């Protein structure tokens, strides 16, 4: 029972990190989380320790952990690896997507468009995460998927910085739409190219933001 609860809490924290619901530098206190979720500290501690071991969180004194801060150098290193791995996953996934998965991807795009128009950052990020990870999970390569999700756990918290100092750009959804059309046609190479453009556009914006913060 305790192991099941720890797994549930781990998945909840993991999904929050993937979708950018936590801020870089944010401290996560075991007792606060246990009180919020109505559980004892033990399963919360176990869930957090798993994420620390995966590099998604950093341990701190006084029984708390924190979301790592992001530097320009670290983000650039993560981005370089993501570009290759995620592009490959898209190409592998293209011929394997079911009708239900394609329908879900289409719904994600529609909701992201609406979120951008309403300037709802978290709503956009939630569906952005769902779109990408649904697509990558169809690649039929569990090793590749584990590597991608590990990288997303590290960069996800920085995604919610994307719109704090700039207007939302409707162009953020253009590459998703291009990739989706290629996926509908079963064209893995075109879908990969569109997704790599998406990652490059998104990544460059965040790199520029880190550059401004540094100076």
From TrEMBL:
Keyword Transcription regulation: yes
Listed Pfam families: FCD, GntR
UniProt GO MF annotations: DNA binding; DNA-binding transcription factor activity
PROSITE patterns: HTH_GNTR
Name used for this protein in its record: FCD domain-containing protein
Record-annotated HTH gntR-type domain positions: 3-70
UniProt organism field: Pseudomonas xionganensis
InterPro entries, sorted: GntR_C, TF_FadR/GntR_C, Tscrpt_reg_HTH_GntR, WH-like_DNA-bd_sf, WH_DNA-bd_sf
